[in-house]
Amino acid sequence: MNDRMTTPWGDRVLARFPEDPRDRLRAWDASDAYLLRHLADREVPLSGTVVVVGDRWGALVTALAEHRPTQITDSWLGQEATRANLARNAVEPGTVRLLTTQDPPPERIDVLLVRVPKSLALLEDQLLRLAPAVHEGTVVVGTGMVKEIHTSTLNLFERILGPTRTSLAEKKARLIFCTPDPATARPVNPWPYRYTLPDGIGPVSGRTVVNHAGVFCADRLDIGTRFFLTHLPAGRGGRVVDLGCGNGVVGTAMALADPRAEVLFVDESFQAVASAEATYRANGVRGQAEFRVGDGLSGVPAGSVDLVLNNPPFHSHQATTDATAWRMFTGARRTLRPGGELWVIGNRHLGYHVKLRRLFGNGEVVASDPKFVVLRAVKR
Rounded to 10 degrees, what is the CA torsion of 272, 274, 277, 281? Predict the structure, then answer.
C-alpha cells in the first residue's frame, strides 16, 4: 500500500517491500512523524554527518534525503524498501548512503537518530559500535512507540552514551534525548555471543552456536527449534534450504548429518546470515554451503531444491501477520523439484496445515506436542 506522509520537508509517498495491494500496513508510524517534527521545530542542525539507525522502511532517510543521511539497518527488506521509496520520491541515487549492521559505521557522527528496535540486544550492539564516532556535540535522538520504549531502553542509552531523558508522549509515540558524555566508561561489546548446545538434539548436540545481536533467542536454544531438531528428516544429500535460517543451527544439523548435502542458508536479516555462517564455520562442517541475505527464495531457480526447512516468523515488527509465512511457502513450492519436500515448524494455533494443503494439495503432521507442530508437504 502506497501512503503519503506529510513532513516538514514536504510530502513523501512511501510503501513497504515487497509491495502487496492486500497489505494495509503503513511504511511509517507516529514515532517517525514525531521525530521529524522535533528536528524541524527545534531547528536541529543537519549539516554534518547524519546517521539513521533502524529506519524500518526508509521513511526517515527519505524525508531527510536533502541532508544526505546514512542509513544503518539489519533488514534486507527494509533496505530494499528504502531504495524503492527514494526512487519513488525522485531522490538521486547516491544521495543517501545505505549500510547494513555488518558494515563498518561512519568514523564521525554529528546527528544520530535511532528508531528503537524490538531487540534490546541489537540496540546495545549498535550503540556500542557507534559510540566511538559520537562526540560531545553530537545530537542523539531516539524514537519509538510508547510500548517499545522501556526503562531498560533508556538505561542502555545512558550506560553507553551519556545522560538520557524522554519526551512526553504524542499519539502513543515518545522521543529519547541523550547527551553524549565522552567520559562515559563504556562496557565491552558482548556480541557476537557463543554458547554450547545441549545433548539429545541430533547431530548438533554439544556443538557451538554463534549469535550476532538481534537474532531470535540469542543466548539459548529456543524450544521450537529444539523440537524441530529432534524431528528433522534423515540426511538424503541434494540441495537443502534453511529458509529463515536465524543462527543456522537447523541447516548446520543437516550438513553434519549428511556431508553430501548442499545447504543454502537464507534470511532477510544481515545479523542472522552472519550468525549462520559463523555457526557453520565454528563447527568445522565439511560440505558445500551458501549464505544469502534476501527475501526468502527469490532468485533461487524454480525446481532446483530437494528440501526446504522453515520456521516462519509471524510478526513484522509489532504487527502480527501471516504474509511472510505465505511468501515462504509459495517460494518453497516454486523452487522444489517434483517429489521435493517442505518441512515446517510452527505454533499449533497458527494453522499452517491449512495453507500447506491449499498450496501443495497435501500435508501431514510429522510430530506435535502441546505447543508446536512439525508439518511435511510434498511437491507433486
Answer: -130
C-alpha–C-alpha distance, residues 175 and 170, integer Å: 9
Q: What is the pLDDT of residues 54-112, one digit of tens each?
A: 999 999 999 999 999 999 999 999 999 999 999 999 999 999 999 999 999 999 999 99
260-269, 323-332, 333-342: the lowest-pLDDT one: 323-332
> Does residue 277 share a domain with residue 216?
yes
Residue span of the structural domain in which 326 resides = 193-378
Identify whether 187 is part of a domain. no
Do 168 and 201 belong together in one domain?
Answer: no
Neighbours of 375 (CB within 10 A): 21
C-alpha cell at 280: 557453520
Note whether 258 and 353 are same-domain residues.
yes
The residues near 52 (Cβ < 8 Å, ≥ 6 apart) are 60, 61, 64, 69, 70, 71, 72, 113, 115
pLDDT tens by residue, 166-181: 999 999 999 999 999 9
* pLDDT for 321: 55
CA 239 from centroid of its chain's CA atoms: 25
The CA distance from 118 to 108, in Å, is: 26
Is residue 317 within 8 Å of 56, Cβ to Cβ? Answer: yes
Q: How far apart are CA 280 and CA 251, in angstroms?
A: 8
Distance CA 7, CA 36 (A): 7
Q: Tell me which residue of 36, 33, 25 sits closest to 3, measured CA to CA.
A: 25
Question: Could you give the number of structural domains in the chain?
Answer: 2
